[in-house]
Amino acid sequence: MPLNLYDTYKRKLVTIEPIEKGKIGFYSCGPTVYDFVHIGNLRTYIFNDTLKRALKYLGYKVKHIMNITDVGHLVSDEDAGEDKLEKGAKREGKTVWEVARYYTKFFLADIEALNIEMPEVMPRATETIPEMIEIVKILLEKGAAYETDEAIYFDISKFPDYEKLTGQKFKDKKQGARDEVVTDPQKKNPADFALWFKTVGRFKEHTMHWSSPWGEGFPGWHIECSAMSRKFLGQPFDLHTSAIDHTKVHHPNEIAQSEAAYGIPLANYWVHAEFLLVDGHKMSKSLGNLFRLSDLEEKSFSPLDFRYLTLTAHYRNKLNFTWEGLKAASAAHANLRNLVSELNEPAEPDEKYLNEFRLHLENDLNTAEALAVLWKLIKSPEIASGVKRATVNEMDKVLGLNLAGLKPEVLSPEIAELVERRDFARQSRDWKKSDELRRNLEAQGFSVEDGPQGTKVRKNS
Ligand code: AMP
Ligand code: ZN
C-alpha cells in the first residue's frame, strides 16, 4: 500500500503522489525564536521528523525545509499587537538579534536531544527578505495586493477560495468590529492581511527593517513561509505540515498569496498535527502548565521518554500530557531499552514483522500501531534474538528512539559491589540488610529485580 495521509484541505485520506518520482519536497513551519519552545511545539516537531523518517523508510529521497522565524510574527496571527521578537527584546533588555540567537540555540539543543534529524535547510526569515519582496511586487502588479500609508496588504477579494479555505465568511464583517485588532483605516477589508509593514506609526521604532520599493519596512509572517518554501523547494512542492492552529489563518494566507502570485498551487498536500494539552487544558503561562523539555529532565525523564510518549498517540488525536502518563511511558520505554539491550548481534530482519510495521506507517502514519508491532516482535517467543535485533534496528529508523546498538549495562565497581553485598545478604537470609541495599540501589537510579541468578539491576532511563 502506498503512503496515505489525511489532507486537511481535501478533508480526506489521500495517497501521496510525488511531483518527481521517488522524491519528496517537504516544508514545515518552524519556531518563532522569541521564547523557549514548549512540549506542545516539540510534539509537532517530532511529528514532522517521524513523517520525514517514514518517508525515507518507504524509499523516498526527502528534502525537508523548516524555517526559523526571526522577524515579523506579531503577537496575534491577524496583524495585531507587537512583533514577538521586539516584545522578547524589551522583556529581556537584549537586542532582537540577540534574542533570536539565544532562543535558536536552545531550540536546536532540544531538537538534538529528541533525536530529530536536522532538516536539509533551516532558512532564517531575515536571510530571505529579497525573495519576499519579489512576491509582494508580483502581487501588486497583478492587482492582488494594495498599498496604504502603513503597509502592503493582500486583497482577499481577489482570491475566490479564501473563505472556503479559512472556513469563515468575511463579507458581513465591519471594519474594526473586533476591538482588539488594530486596524488601518485604509484597509479595504478587515480580513486583508499584511504582506509588508512599513516602519511608520506603531512600527516606527521597529529595530529590524529593510529597504523595499515601498520604503523601509519588514515582512509579514505569512509571506515568509511562501518565500522560503518556494526558494528551496520550488513551486508547487509536495508536502506542507505543521500543527492544527495554522489551518485557519497562516496556511490559507500562504496559499492565497503564493497561488495569486504564480497561478499554481503552493503545495500539493497539507497535513496538520493535533495539539498537545496539559491536564486537559491548552498550555498557557497563566495556568502554569507550560512545560519545556528541561522541566521534564529536571524530574529525571529523558527527552526520548517524551518522544516515546508522543509516538503512542496518533498525530491526528490530541495528546493529553500528564505526569502520570509520562511516567508510564518512561517505564515502558526503559523496559523496551532493557529488552533490546539484551538481544544478540543482528542477523537478518524478519520481513513479516517489517511488513506489518510498514502497513501501519502507510495508513496515515499510525505510530501507535507501529510501536505495538515492535512490542509484539520483542515478546514473540518464536523469533530468534539476532533476528529481533535486526528488525528493531530497521523499525528504529522511523521511531528515532536510538535503540540500535544498545548494549547491556556495564555496572560501575561501586554498584557491582552493592549488588554482590545484596546477594550475600540474601543468601544469609539477612532480609533487613537486603532491603537496605535495595533502597540504596534504587536511590542511585537503578531498578532491582530478584532472579534465579541473584540480584539484577537496570539503570532507569
Ligand atoms: P509558533 O512558534 O507559535 O508558531 O509554534 C511553533 C509550532 O508549534 C507550530 O507548528 C505550531 O502549530 C505548533 N504548536 C503550538 N502550540 C502547540 C501545541 N500545544 N501542541 C502542538 N503543537 C503546537
Ligand atoms: Zn508557515
TrEMBL record:
- Positions of transmembrane segments: none
Kindly state the positions of the motif 'HIGH' region in this protein: 31-41
**So which cofactors does this thing need?**
Zn(2+)
Catalytic reactions on record: tRNA(Cys) + L-cysteine + ATP = L-cysteinyl-tRNA(Cys) + AMP + diphosphate
Keywords per UniProt: Aminoacyl-tRNA synthetase, ATP-binding, Cytoplasm, Ligase, Metal-binding, Nucleotide-binding, Protein biosynthesis, Zinc
Binding-site list for Zn(2+): 29, 225, 250, 254
Q: Which residue intervals define the domain tRNA synthetases class I catalytic in the entry?
A: 16-329
The EC number(s) given in the record are: 6.1.1.16
Q: How is the quaternary structure described?
A: Monomer.
- Tell me the protein's name: Cysteine--tRNA ligase
- Organism, by scientific name, is Candidatus Doudnabacteria bacterium RIFCSPHIGHO2_02_FULL_46_11
Gene encoding the protein: cysS
